[in-house]
Amino acid sequence: MTVIFMIFSFVALIGAFLLDGGHITGLLSYTAAIIVIGATIGATGVTIPTSILKNTFKLIGISMGNKKSDFITLIKYFSELSVKARKEGLLALETDMNVEGVDPFIKKGVSLAVDGTNPELIKAIMETQIEQMSKRHKSQIQIFDSAGGYAPTMGILGTVMGLVHVLSNLDDAASLGEKIAVAFLATMYGIGTANLIYLPIAGKLKALDAQEVKEKMMILEAVLSITSGDNPQVMVQKLKVFLDPPTLRAFETSEGAET
After folding, report:
1. Structure pTM?
2. How far is CA 121 from the centre of its chain?
């Protein structure tokens, strides 16, 4: 859907331009594109450390994906762990953590509980890990936030350069309007790439970060509940707080069906 909506934005803008009598060639200028895109990449490269910048294409792929957190499955999974812990003790969960495919964050939290770590220390360790994860995400998102900030400015710079070139050569008055129009394409490219590419990607990555933080906070709450020996139903009630209304309704429907 991310790709579809991005294409829809371009189609809407270009389609409206064509319906108004414009020609697609009137929107093309390779020199303006070189100025805006090249200068934006350069400025962003100066701002962002290379160790973070090398993840750019990976982040674009993530933003175009459709990663979702399955909160309902998580609640049911922890409910089963809670029941097992109350019946057989925390040590019985150690075998569940050795199963392939277990989320490393879950494995770490449960392993700390199995080792008899104080709940307050477990909370501090896991909260610190969540905080550092989010900070890492935000430092990577800054690539697109920076590009979105620089692109319009580079577009204006490109337009000024174009106008300087036009005004320094006024001999051919007949082509003056066309040359000025081409000069303004740089501003269009700058504003367009910022608001149709860079900033939307940054926004999508921020939403994914918030979703992952929410998932990790649910895991933390579940681990602490199991460590404290809460009744499985009490733990489920605690975890349901993390569900949005549609997901909560779906979870309650699935509970009713199982009953």
Report:
1. 0.86
2. 30
Q: Which amino acid is present at 109?
A: G
Residue spans of the chain under pLDDT 50: none
What are the domain boundaries of the chain? 26-70+122-258
For residue range 133-187, what is the model confidence (pLDDT) as tens digits? Answer: 999 999 999 999 999 999 999 999 999 988 887 777 767 666 677 778 778 889 9
What does pLDDT average to over the chain? 88
Instruction: Give dist(CA 228, CA 220) in Å, integer.
Output: 12
